[in-house]
Write a structure and sequence with these properties.
Blueprint (H helix, E strand, L loop, with lengths): L2 E5 L5 E5 L6 H7 L19 E4 L4 H4 L4 H6 L11 E3 L12 E5 L5
Parallel strand pairs: 1-5
Antiparallel strand pairs: 1-2, 3-4, 3-5
Bound molecules: FE2/S2 (inorganic) cluster (FES).
FE2/S2 (inorganic) cluster (FES) binds next to loops.
Length: 107
């Protein structure tokens, strides 16, 4: 399973093995990363799963689709060019080593 590194708001880092097809939001909440809320369960209705993609993997992710782009307007933390909603990032082999910084705050 590919590894993903989460950089938490306090600067600590947490690495997770994430099964292919699982969203980063799900992996983070299952692992107890409370900084990612995921209030809507991944239905693009809350923006509480906001992350900043820190590594060169941004190109592999492709651009956010229209719904994700619209929901990124509602993030509590500033939206940056590398902002993404982690419920829309599904793990795949090519994303080994992906690093994301968890936005703070989420609400
Ligand atoms: S979990 Fe609600 S938009 Fe991602």
């Amino acid at each position: 399973m590919p590894n993903v590194k989460f950089i938490l708001p306090d600067g600590r880092e947490q690495a997770l093995e994430v099964e292919n097809g699982t969203s980063l939001m799900r992996a983070a909440t299952w692992a107890g990363i409370h900084s990612i809320v995921g209030d809507c369960g991944g239905n693009l209705a809350c923006a509480t799963c906001h992350v900043y993609v820190e590594s060169t993997h941004a190109e592999l992710l492709g651009p956010a689709d229209t719904r994700e782009t619209e929901m990124l307007e509602y993030t509590a933390a500033p939206r940056l060019p590398n902002s993404r909603l982690s419920c829309q990032i599904l793990m795949q082999e090519g994303l080994e080593g992906l690093t994301v910084r968890v936005a703070d705050p989420q609400l």
